[in-house]
Amino acid sequence: MTGSPDPVRALLSDHRALCERAVDPLEIAAGLEASGVTDRAAARFRHRDVFSLADELFARVTPPERAEGADAGRAPRRRRRAARLLSPLLPGVLCAATVAAALARPFAAVVLAVALAALTLAAARLVLSPLGPPGLAGICALPPVGYALFGDAALAELLPGRQSVPQDVATATALTLAFAAAPTAWCRGWFAVRRLRLLATSRGLREFAAGARPLLAAALALVLAGLLAVQGAARLLPVPGTPGAFAATTALGLLLGLAVLLVGHGRTGAAAAGLAAAGAVELLALALAGGAWLPGCAGLAAPVEALVAAHGTAVVPALACGGAAAALLVPTVRTLTRAATPL
Amino acid sequence: MRVALLTEGGYPYARGESVAWCDRLLHGLTGHDFDIGALSRGRRQERGPRRPLPPHVRRVRTAPLWGPPPAGRASRAGARRFAEHFAELTAALCPGHQLLGGEGTRRQADRFAHGLHGLADAADAHGGLGGWLRSERALRILEAACRARGAPRALRFARVADLLAVAERLERALRPLSLDWYGPDGLDAADLCHAVGGGPAALAGLLARRRHGTPLLVTERRVRVREHYLAGAAAGAGAPVRALLGAFQVGLAREIYASAALITPGDALARRWQERCGAAPERLRTVYPGLDARPFDAVARARGGAAAPALVWVGRPVPEKDLVGLLHAFHLVRAAEPGARLWIVSAPAHGRGDGAYLARCRALAARLFPAPRGGPGPVAFAEVGDAEVPGLADAYARGGVVVLSSAVEGFPVPLIEAMFSGGATVSTDAGAVAEVVGGTGLVVPPRDPRALAEACLALLRDPERRARLGAAARARALELFTVERDVAAFGAIYRELGGERQAAPRRPARARETIRLTAVGGGERA
C-alpha cells in the first residue's frame, strides 16, 4: 500500500502512545483492533494477522523511562478542603452553644441543652469517623467520656470518709473534649492523606513500613500537642468550675485519638476493646467505692481510697485511660504501618 | 438433563451482559432443568431488577464479585497453604514476556494451573480464602514475585499502591474458589456446566469439572483477555497492574480453554483471540448469537417494485460508526445521482448514542447538503419511535440499500437486521462484517468514502441486483442468525456434552482433610 520500504514505521508512529504504554503484545493487538486494524489490514504490513503485527510493534518499541516518584496523588479541591478544615470545629461550637443555653436559662433551656448535647455527640461521630459509623467502638467510647464529665464527682461522693465534693468540672471538661475533637480529626485526615501518598510512592513494603512509622509517630505527637493546646486554652475560658485533672483529660484524649485512627483503618474491634477496658476499670472503681457502703464490705474501697488519698480522684481515669491508650498503641503501630491495611 | 448456567454480571440480573440471550436460551430449552449461578458485578446490579425466571429453573445461587472481601481469618495451617500456592501462582505471572506457544509458556501455564488448583483445594479445605488475599502476607508474596530475577521490566517499577490494586482485583477474580456452589447438591448434581463468559463464571465451572468431572461449556462472546486490555487502557491503570492482571487473565483463559469440553465463540474475532490464548481449534465451535427475525418479515415481504433511490443507516450514532465518512460518501453519490436520499436512523435498542457526535453530523449534513426551498433536505435524521419510523423494522423499509459505514465494529447487529429485512447491504470491512455478509452484500474497505459511494451507486442503479442480493442476504440470515438456530445449536451441544455424563456413573468426590464450605455471601433461592 505505502511506498516506503518500512510500512510498519508509519503505523508505529500512528499508535506510538499505545505501543509505549503496552506491557504485552496482546495489549497492542487489542488496541489496534479497537482502532479498526483488522487481519486484512495487517496483511498490508506483510503480517499474517493482527497478533503478529502487534508482536513486531511490541518488539520495536522501547518503553520510555518512567519518572521516579511521579503521580503522588491529586490535590483536593479548594472549597472542599476549606469545609474539611473547618468542619472538625463543629462539636466544639455545638458544645459551647449547649453550655451557653444551659447557663442562660437554667430550667427552660434543659430541653434545648439536651438536644444540643445529642447534636454535639452526633457531630463528633461524623467528624471523627467520617467514612462510616464507628459501630461498637462508638458505644464503647461513651463510658470513659461520661466518667470524665461526672466520674470524679461521683467517686468523691461515694468514697466513705471523704465529704468534700470537688467543684463542678463537667462543663469545662465537656468543652475541652469537644474542642479536642478538632485536632484529632485534623491529624486523622492528615495521616490518611500522607499514608496514601506514601503507598503511591513507596517502591516496596519495607520502604513503606520504614516511612509509615515516623509518620504515625508524628500524627500521635500532633494529637498530643493539640490536646495540650486545647486544655491550655480551656483554662483561660470564663466558665464555672475547673477543668478536670490535666493528666486524666490528656490520657482520655490520647485514647480517643488512637481509637479514631484504628476505626479509620478498619480495626473497630481493637478500638472498642481498648475503650471498653478503660470504661470497665473506671466503673469498677465506682463499684468498689459504692460497695464499701454495704454492711461488712468496708474493705472493698480500700485500694481506691488509698490511690485517691495519695493522688486525688483524677488518678482513676488517668490510670484507666492511660493504660488503655498504652495497650492500644500496639495494634495501632502494627496495623497502620502495614500496607495491607484498608484505606 | 440438569444444566448449571453460570453467569457473571448478567442473567438473571436484568441489567447486564447477554441477558436477553440467556433469557431466550432458557425459554427455548424447556426440556432441561436449570440451576443458575450468578456472580454480580456491583451493588446496583444486585439490588436492581431481575428477569422473571421460567419454571424449569430449579435454583438460583448468587454471589457478589464486589465489595469488601468476606470476613474471617484463615487458620494458621490454611494461611500457610494459601501462601505456598499463591506464591506458585504469582511466580507463573511474572517470569517475563515470552512469545505464546513456546516451551517456556507451557511450563508457565502448568505452574499457573498448579498454583490455581492448589489454592482452590486449600480454600475448599480451610473454609474459603476469605480476606487472605488482601493480607500483608499475600502482598509480600506479590512483591517477591515482582522483584524476582527475570521479571518483566514493567514490574520492577511496581509501587506498593500497585501491589494493593493487584491484590484487590485478584481477590475478586478468585472469589469463585471460595463459593459453596460445589458438592453433591451443587454443581456436582449438574450434568453440564454452561459458563456464559470466560473469567469468574468459567472459573466456577472449571472447579466443578476438576472436582466432580462435570463437563464445561464456555460461551464467550466478548473475549475476557481482550476486554481486560481495553478496559485497563481506558481506566488508566499503571503498567505493573496491567502487566500482572493481564498475565493472570491470560493464564486463567488458558486453563479454562484447556479444561472446557467445548468453547462457543460468537464470531471469528472472538475465535481468533481464543485460539491465540491456547484454545484447541477442534474444541472451538462458532455459534452466532441469534436475533429475532419475525419483526422484519413484513418489511421483507413488502420489498420489491421500484423503490425510491434511498440509502438507510441504522444504529447507534457514535464516532466508531464513521457517519462523517458516510456523509462524505453520500456527497459523492448525490453528485452522480441527484435524486438519492439518505436516512440516518438512531436506534436506541442498539445502545445509547453520542449526542454531541450526532449534532456534529447534523451540522456537517446541513453544510454539505443545503436544504432546498420549501422541501426536506436529501439527508433525513430520525430516531426509532418517530412518526416516520415507528418501529425498528420500519427503519429498514425506508430505502432499498442499507449502509453500514463503521470504522470499528464488533458483531454487527444492524447488518443482520438489514439482512432479515431483505435489504441489499453495503458495509465496511470491520469486525465480523465480512463473516456475517458472506457474499450477500457489498463490502468495501473502512474509512474510504469513495469506495463506499461507488458501491452504493452500483446498487442504487441496479434494482435487479439489489433484489437478488437482498433475497440472498435474507436467506443467509434466516439460515445462520435466527434465535431458533442459536437455541437449537445449544440444545444439540447440551445433548452431546451432557449425555455422556448422564449415562456414566458419577465420579466419587475426592477425600479431603476437612470439608467445610462457607458462602462468600449472597442469597439463595430454592
TrEMBL record, chain A:
Keywords: Membrane, Transmembrane, Transmembrane helix. Coiled coil: none annotated. It comes from the Bacteria. The chain crosses the membrane at residues 85-104, 110-128, 135-155, 175-193, 214-233, 245-263, 270-294, 306-330. This is Integral membrane protein. It comes from Streptomyces radicis.
UniProtKB/TrEMBL annotation, chain B:
Residues 1-282 form the DUF3492 domain. GO terms for molecular function: glycosyltransferase activity. Residues 40-77 are annotated as: Disordered. SUPFAM superfamilies: UDP-Glycosyltransferase/glycogen phosphorylase (SSF53756). InterPro entries: DUF3492. Pfam families: DUF3492, Glyco_trans_1_4. PANTHER family: BLL3647 PROTEIN (PTHR12526:SF636), GLYCOSYLTRANSFERASE (PTHR12526). This is D-inositol 3-phosphate glycosyltransferase. It comes from Streptomyces radicis.
